[in-house]
Amino acid sequence: MREQKNRQDREYGKEEASLIQEGGYISPIPDLWEDILIGVVLKKPVLLKGPSGSGKTKLAQSISHFFNQPMHSVNCSVDLDAESLLGFKTINADSGQSIIEFVEGPVVQAMKKGHILYIDEINMAKPETLPILHSVLDHRRMLTNPFTGEVIHAHPDFTVVAAINEGYVGTSPMNEALKNRFISFSIPYLSGEQLRKIIQTLFPQSDLSLVNTMMNINDDLRKQVMNGLLAEEAASVRSLLDAIALAEHMPIRRAIQYAIAEKLEDRMERDLVRELVETWVK
Predict the structure, then answer these.
(1) Record's SUPFAM superfamilies (predicted)?
(2) What does residue 20 show for φ and ψ, rounded to 5 degrees?
(3) Domains of the chain: which residue ranges?
(4) Where in 149-194 does DSSP place strands (E)?
(5) Which residues, 6+ apart, have CB-to-CB distance to 2 below 8 Å?
(6) Which residues, in sequence order, are bridge partners of residue 75?
(7) Is residue 116 within 8 Å of 72, Cβ to Cβ?
């Protein structure tokens, strides 16, 4: 069983140790990483709120690495149903006879094995699907499987981490009964030296001028997002990293076009991105 002392014994004294986690996540806020770990230690379901590309999935992976705890992922959509969460029955042939077997889904597996259950874009699921998890997420930490009748009590190490992109197309506000079962953390975009650090880690051979140019473009994109002239995804760290990877093999203008501008639905926003690029690329 995990001990709180083991977590407290982790070395956070050096600045880089507090920023770069085993799974690759870099915290833009000094206390954010440690505060989330405290929530996990206390067996509280953790909800990560932030824009697309802010590193929520990377953060969940870092938690998995930190505790050396496997992670089962659920990607929510309007098609998500109870079978996708809990499992399904199937017919197998054994010695000429047909046998009905139950294939356990990610929720059941994570509960029994004491693994992490990561529910991505939880507010994309239909509201009527998720109440089946209420008893899993509160103090009971148990579930009666409607497909088998089995009563499942969660392993002591079982952990739930969920993520949402608020206000995006296709999402809906979380049911209050569901939201109240989580403790919530806002996950902002990386910027400044934290962003530079992860770029240098992922692209150690990149030319310094390329990194500086991309950092400057990203700063301008963030400002326009804050001004309400660009959608949040224009400043996505994930998209920026994609652009850098492309720019190592093609001109920056085309890299930004493919990795950032073309993802924006509004033509005026795409044009604005191109204009910002022109101020830094001669």
Answers:
(1) P-loop containing nucleoside triphosphate hydrolases (SSF52540)
(2) -100, 115
(3) 4-186, 192-278
(4) 151-153, 159-164, 183-186
(5) 41, 67, 157
(6) 120
(7) yes
Q: How many CB atoms lie within 10 A of CB 108?
A: 23
Distance between CA atoms of 276 and 59, rounded to whole angstroms? 30
Query: What is the CATH class of 4-186?
Result: alpha beta
Amino acid letter at 29? I
Tens digit of each residue's pLDDT, the chain (282 residues): 444 434 433 433 333 334 444 456 777 787 899 999 999 999 999 999 988 778 898 899 999 999 999 999 999 988 899 999 999 988 877 766 778 888 999 999 999 999 999 999 998 888 888 899 999 999 999 999 999 999 999 999 999 999 998 655 556 678 888 999 999 999 988 778 888 888 888 888 888 999 999 999 999 998 898 888 988 888 888 899 999 999 999 999 999 999 999 999 899 999 999 999 999 997
Q: Are 276 and 220 in contact (CB under 8 A)?
A: yes
The residue count for the chain: 282
C-alpha to C-alpha distance for 237 and 51, rounded to whole angstroms: 10
Query: What's the predicted TM-score (pTM) here?
Result: 0.78
Tell me, what amino acid is at 96? G
Give the closest residue to 120 by CA, choosing from 158, 80, 75, 160.
75
Q: What does the alpha-carbon distance between residue 221 and residue 227 come to, in Å, rounded to a whole number?
A: 10
Backbone angles phi, psi at 73, to 5 degrees: -110, 140
CA-atom Rg of the chain in angstroms = 22
Give the pair of three-digit tokens for residue 211. Answer: 């990194």
